[in-house]
Design goal:
By secondary structure, the protein is mainly alpha-helical. It is 63% helix and 11% strand.
Amino acid sequence: MKSPKVIFGISVLLLLVYIIVLSQQFSSVQEIIPVHYSGDGGDGFGSKNFLWLEVGLNFLFLCLLALPIFFPERMFAKTGDYLESSIEAAIKNRQLFLSVLSVLVTIIFCGLSLKEIICLNFI
């Protein structure tokens, strides 16, 4: 089983790559971009600066998830009221869940707006 810290590191790496790509491509992004989608496509539009808001929200979310991953002794009670056989197994399972959640949220945050940043021209 992978360490939760390694899995969490993947989400941080994904966010850093997204920030680099956004920084390099920001000047070529259209001024008005879709910020909300429905079944018919984009139905809400906003400034391209909204892309940096997504980065900030993702960073904030990763900071909140990092607390129980890196400091479990302060975040989880030692009462033994867990379904798992030991407290250590319970904490490890919760850390693993949170680290996988961090990767999924980062992929969603970055992936939804990636098509606005990278313009693919097919001939």
